[in-house]
Amino acid sequence: MLDNLKTETRNQRSTDLDQLSTLSVLELMQEEDAKVSLAIREKLPEIERVTKCVIASFKQGGRLIYTGAGTSGRMGILDAVECVPTFGTDPDMVQGVIAGGDEAIRMAVEGAEDSVEQGMKDLEKLNLSDKDIVLGVAASGRTPYVIGGLQYAARVGAATASLACNKDAEISNYAEYPIEIITGPEVLTGSTRLKAGTAQKMVLNMISTAAMIGIGKTYSNLMVDVQPTNEKLIVRAKSMIREMTGCDYETASKYYELSRHQVKVAVIMLLAELDYEEAQRKLQEADGFIRRALQQK
């Protein structure tokens, strides 16, 4: 029953919401949002387990697949699509699947989340394998579509994880690695695009970012695999080369071109005094980690 879910109960702090001033509404929302980070902190061990599983999946050529409905599904898609420009990943490496398909990204598709069978069918289209990990996202923790996806993933041997915003969530029973972030009643009753959605965004950010760090997609705190698809990102790429090697901007620009627009290769070329082919080989042998490549003899 929805009445038993904390995300669906009334928040006693906001029962006079329609009588508050605009500033008071904003203050109340900010105060409630501040609780989200604390709720996430309590679940860091669970988030760590999922992240390590994602890293293991990536290292064996597997994928991270988010599945969800409504806001939860959109959060998965948002995180997935942002991995491509941020970390230079193949679009297939991190994917988001939403109940109702692409139409549901922009507009609610009524009833789409209620089908266990559709949750299975949508993941079946992705040709899942035991190298992949499926992370089911549902604020309520009971969405049939997500349950179906997790059931199918388990059937083909993929790793399974879940993210819910209620305690003892039903989807936790279908995941090897469940995460439950208890965000409590929303300021606007049942509107889980608020605190629950914020919690989901934060946790998915943490998992994907830490996983990318774990497979060598960063150097220090720099996005060294960023795709230079516009002028701003090209300048950023050259600036990273300059900052990591201590060279001037002109030299950074030169090696940006010599490295075929690959920041990591440019850095190795400069610091190890190698040509493109040798720097590329060292990076591959180091599984994409700059530090490891530079330590090789």
Automatic annotation (TrEMBL):
Q: Which domain of life is it from?
A: Bacteria
- Name its species: Paenibacillus enshidis
- By its UniProt entry, which Pfam families does this protein fall under? GKRP_SIS_N (PF22645)
The miscellaneous remark of the record is: A lyase-type mechanism (elimination/hydration) is suggested for the cleavage of the lactyl ether bond of MurNAc 6-phosphate, with the formation of an alpha,beta-unsaturated aldehyde intermediate with (E)-stereochemistry, followed by the syn addition of water to give product.
Source gene?
murQ
Q: What's the protein name?
A: N-acetylmuramic acid 6-phosphate etherase
Q: Which residues form the active site?
A: E82 (proton donor), E113
Cross-referenced PANTHER family: GLUCOKINASE REGULATORY PROTEIN
Family from the record: Belongs to the GCKR-like family. MurNAc-6-P etherase subfamily.
Keyword set includes Nucleus: no
Which pathway does this chain act in?
Amino-sugar metabolism; N-acetylmuramate degradation
